[in-house]
Design brief:
Keywords: Hydrolase. InterPro entries: AB_hydrolase_fold, Hydrolase_4, MAG_DAG_Lipase. The chain is 33% helix and 18% strand. Helix 4 packs across helix 7 and helix 5 packs across helix 7. With 347 residues, the chain is α/β, with parallel strands linked by helices. It contains nine helices and twelve strands. Strand 11, helix 8 and strand 12 form a beta-alpha-beta unit. The chain has one domain: 3-Layer(aba) Sandwich (Rossmann fold).
Length: 347
């Protein structure tokens, strides 16, 4: 490419990036930072977005910063369905390894819930793009040069869909997927998904009941069989009823990624358990398997996301791999940071 043409191309990219930052920042109202409910140096701020079909909406940015103000790397974590950010150990791990840590509670989840809202409601996963944009703008404005995005389950689907749609406007450098929700795991009733999705186009609020099992919650909570404390008003013991509009939103994003036509052109770390189980009631095996999604489907569809995908099968991992028992979590964090050291620029 001739120097003049190269200069024009670079200036065009820079101008587009500046316009994106200005647009993303101007369309939201940011509150001031305040101490987060988790304490331990974590902070949070609300971001008010334009009203949607249900009324006012907001997202929440949570962060924990390294003590060294010369840090140039950061990570943005996106939680899953029936979830919110509560894993302060994760924040500590990244900060200890020299990354400013950020997480987002998406609209209608966790800290972002407004009285009267239908929790977790969505009609198109693009609704969450402004929530992610606002967090990334905050990170860029703090001076971070390299950004990693990490998503768990539905958050992994949303992060993948975001990057496949957005052409990487802020130069995200890597994507980490923790058991991403890339396909349904409904067994004999999965054939109904396209029909329910069609209903969702006409009647988006049509209720769709989910499993009443509490096995996954029992495998996590310290008060049952797990190691964790969290607010069960924000992460319910059993999956709540969703809507046909939500099913349509999930199915549409999955189909978009399944086509293989929308590649994510950055390194991807794809992590999943070595074993999946389908259960109604808790059993000891629930402590060493993914009882939410099919690990085989995660690998199958995860490999379609881009040309640089590293697969990591985690023996004994739970659905949320970073909530597995400590003897699994710590080696997995080592794996994550080793992978990042190979795929990010050396500074």
């Amino acid at each position: 490419m001739r120097p003049k043409r190269l200069l024009v191309t670079l200036l065009t990219i820079a101008a587009a990036h500046i316009l994106w930052l200005q647009s993303a920042f101007c369309q939201q109202t940011y509150s001031s930072w305040r101490p987060d409910i988790l304490g331990d140096g974590l902070e949070m701020r609300y971001v008010k977005h334009h009203d949607d079909y249900s009324g006012p909406v907001r997202s929440t940015i949570i962060r924990k910063l390294c003590e060294n103000d010369r840090v140039s790397r950061g990570i943005l974590y996106v939680h899953g369905f029936n979830d919110y950010f509560f894993n302060s150990e994760m924040a500590d791990e990244f900060v200890d390894h020299g990354y400013d840590f950020y997480a987002v509670d998406l609209r209608k989840y966790g800290r972002s819930i407004i009285d009267g809202q239908h929790m977790f409601e969505a009609r198109n996963l693009k609704e969450y793009f402004p929530d992610i944009d606002s967090a990334l703008v905050t990170m860029k404005q703090s001076g971070l040069k390299e950004i990693v995005m990490m998503g768990h389950s539905t958050g992994g689907l949303i992060a993948s869909y975001y990057l496949a749609n957005k052409a990487n406007p802020v130069n995200i450098d890597a994507l980490i997927l923790n058991s991403p929700f890339l396909d349904w795991n409904l067994g004999k009733i999965e054939w109904m998904v396209p029909a329910v999705s069609t209903v969702g186009y006409v009647f988006p609020d049509f209720p769709v009941p989910q499993s009443k099992s509490t096995a996954y919650g029992e495998s996590l909570l310290k008060s049952h069989k797990g190691e964790w404390d969290y607010d069960t008003r924000w992460k319910l013991m059993q999956s709540p009823t969703v809507t046909a509009g939500w099913v349509r939103a999930i199915n549409g994003a999955q189909d978009y990624l399944h086509s293989g036509e929308h590649k994510i052109n950055i390194p991807i770390l794809l992590m999943y358990s070595s074993k999946s189980l389908t259960v109604d009631d808790w059993a000891p095996q629930c402590q060493s398997a993914d009882i939410v999604l099919d690990a085989g489907d995660i690998k199958k569809y995860g490999l379609l996301l881009g040309s640089n995908v590293t697969c990591v099968k985690v023996p004994g991992g739970l659905h949320d791999l970073l909530l597995s028992r400590e003897t699994i979590r710590q080696p997995l964090y080592n794996e994550i940071f080793s992978w990042l050291s190979k795929h990010l620029r050396q500074t």
